[in-house]
Design brief:
Elements lengths: L14 E5 L3 H7 L4 H22 L3 E8 L7 H25 L1 E6 L7 H14 L5 E9 L1 H17 L10 H5 L12 E4 L18 E4 L9 H13 L11
Parallel strand pairs: 1-2, 1-5, 2-4, 3-4, 5-6
The structure holds 3-methylbut-3-enyl trihydrogen diphosphate (IPE) (2 copies) and magnesium ion.
Length: about 240
Amino acid sequence: MSPEAGATQLPVPRHVAIVMDGNGRWAQERGLPRSEGHRAGAVAVQRTVEACRELGIRYLTLYAFSTENWQRPPAEIRALMGLLREFLDNRLDDLVRQGVRLNVIGQIERLPRLVRSRLERVMARTANGTQGTLTLALSYGARAEITAAARALAEEVRAGKLAPKDITEQALAARLQTASLPDPDLVIRTAGEKRLSNFLLWQLSYAEFWFTDLCWPDFDREVLRQALDEFGRRQRRFGGLVHA
Ligand code: IPE
Ligand code: IPE
Ligand code: MG
């Protein structure tokens, strides 16, 4: 993803993670069913993937469905899974053309078989993409992810493959589903909520947060530019001191 000509000279985040919230409210405000909000949200996803490519962001991670979202009414879950299938079918060629590799994190085994098979197909077809990585967090929960990593470490210790003293931050990070991704530099949440809702709790330790009151279906390249501008002006200290 090469930065577009004339783009800001401020630092561009390598990895942006987004909590795409407010589809339901967007629909409600228009007197539409919630599923129409999700449909408009899928269009915003497409726009955002494209904008990231143009703006030089190499890693984009989108929170699309949380472990807690399984509590929603079955009809809404069905609508979401249907849209996900459509998205994967419709965007495959574009992703290949753009050189964007698809990656998934979350409890994929809980997803319907038809969604899983599409995900596998798109991941296989885009595996050689070198321009960027789009990670979808699906049936994802950070606590479940960290718990699974802790369990994996415990199994290795029990099997005699790992000593307790080798349980380091790096060892745990390597057993998270995000092992191949850099930590996000910037996390964005739409629709005015200011919480993480069980998203990437480990990986966001030093991320910059940016919030907008806009609902996800209204998110576009211009809003992303605002977030990037502000990110570029922030001083990241990582606990140290920055000398003027
Ligand atoms: C985000 O929009 C999409 C998902 C969580 C799947 P919501 O469906 O949470 O929309 P609101 O928060 O009810 O407006
Ligand atoms: C967070 O949104 C999950 C996703 C965006 C997929 P929610 O709408 O589920 O979060 P809460 O319930 O407001 O915390
Ligand atoms: Mg919500």
